[in-house]
Amino acid sequence: MKFLEKALGFNPKTMQLKTEIIAGATTFLTMSYILAVNPTILSSTGMDKGALFTATAIASAIATLLLAFMAKMPFAQAPSMGLNAFFAYTLCQAMGYTWKESLAIMLIEGIVFLLITFFHIRELILYSIPKSLRFAISAGIGMFIAFIGLKNADIIVAKEGTFVGLGDFTPISILGIIAIIVSGVLMARNIKGSLFWGILITTIIGIPLGVTQFSSGWLPISAPQDISPIFCKFDFSNLLNIKTILVVFSLLIVNIFDTIGTLVGLSEKAGFVNAGGNIPRVEQAMMSDAIGTTCGALLGSSTITTYVESASGIAEGGKSGVTSFAVGILFLVSLFLSPLFLLIPGAATSGALVMVGVLMLDSIKKIDMEDISESFPAFITIITMVLCYSIADGICLGILSYVIIKLCTGQYKQLNPTLVVLSILFIINFIFE
Questions:
Q1: What are the backbone dihedrals phi and psi of residue 235, each rounded to the nearest 5 degrees, phi first?
Q2: 349, 341, 52: which is closest to 220 by C-alpha?
Q3: What angle do CA 67, 258, 95 make, to 5 degrees?
Q4: What is the 3-state secondary structure (H, E, C) of 156-199?
Q5: What residues pair up with 157 in beta bridges, in sequence order?
Q6: 127-163: buried (b, 16+ CB within 10 Å) or exposed (e) per residue?
Q7: Which single residue of 82, 238, 356, 406 could bond 311 by disulfide (Cβ 3.0 to 4.6 Å)?
Q8: pLDDT tens for each residue of 343-387
Q9: Contact by Cβ (8 Å): 85, 41
Q10: CA–CA gap between residue 433 and residue 390 (Å, rounded)
Q11: In 3D, which of 79, 74, 68, 75 has the Cα closest to residue 8?
């Protein structure tokens, strides 16, 4: 226990080892879809899909284990869902970079990320965010991941006339509805590990519905796939130009605010924020993220970020690095049990995601709704985070609206130089995006 206390921040007086492990398993199951989705997205560029699975699992394990020992927080890290799409569909398809050039860009961004973290520039950015926006970020993330859960289950689908709407009753959407109900009932009855059991129960229910599918000759164990086709395959030959500089800048903006937004929201939920509004060990959390991003590029994966799905483990009682350590170990185990983890359908995790959204929404109570100059930017942050399908865009637009409304109402003294500089950078980024 002394080792766990010193290395992972485990306090036997206030924490239970069983709870921490269940919390880690819950977080892993909730975010395990990345093991299937990331290789699918990145392989569209011509990269080897089997190698990508191995790269995704190893990169996630390294980053999460670093966070466990460095920051001692119950958070998990893996390739960013937004930035893997940026890699495949923007860099490789829209902008014409090869996947080897794109990996080189990811490596450059990771190194710059390390430098700005080492010189505490990210902390400066983090603590420049007003408290009202921090609470809005937490609530916005909750609504965002609930929306992801509904979308993954085809409960919410794209509609031509209204952009989004209710989907049809299909086996997938029915399983998603069951997942939400099961998770809600288990949590309302205060069942320990309710989100974890909700995922497992729903996966089993999905078998007769035809959603949980076994391939022919299915076995739960397989040897790890060879990573050599994508390991350190960089091409720097055509990157010395203005376009690449703007691409790296855009990646940094998205990555910084995805990570900062998630850290703020999760730390609020976990109760890590102290009376002064600061987050203990946030520097270490940011550094593990930066190292993870660099390692991810070396392995052949896209940018690493802290996952909002970590909130599911926090909701199960995870409070220390033991939770994230469990997640990291499970990512390593997944190298040998990939067929088993890929068996879990996205709809089975929708219940956990929706319930986490419900839990994170309580931070709205802390926003001063009587002061429009505070509540308006908070509202912009929350609604654009969901409608733009981007944590980073929600934060950017929230900060911009905060600066504008404070200037226009003569409350410029409430602004700090960092907010003003960030607003200018956001505008430039939007112009050249």
A1: -135, 105
A2: 341
A3: 115
A4: EEEECCCEEEECCCCHHHHHHHHHHHHHHHHHHCCCCCHHHHHH
A5: 165
A6: ebbbebbbbbbbbbbbbbbbbbbbbbbbbbeeeeeee
A7: 356
A8: 888 888 888 889 888 988 888 988 999 999 999 999 999 999 888
A9: yes
A10: 15
A11: 68
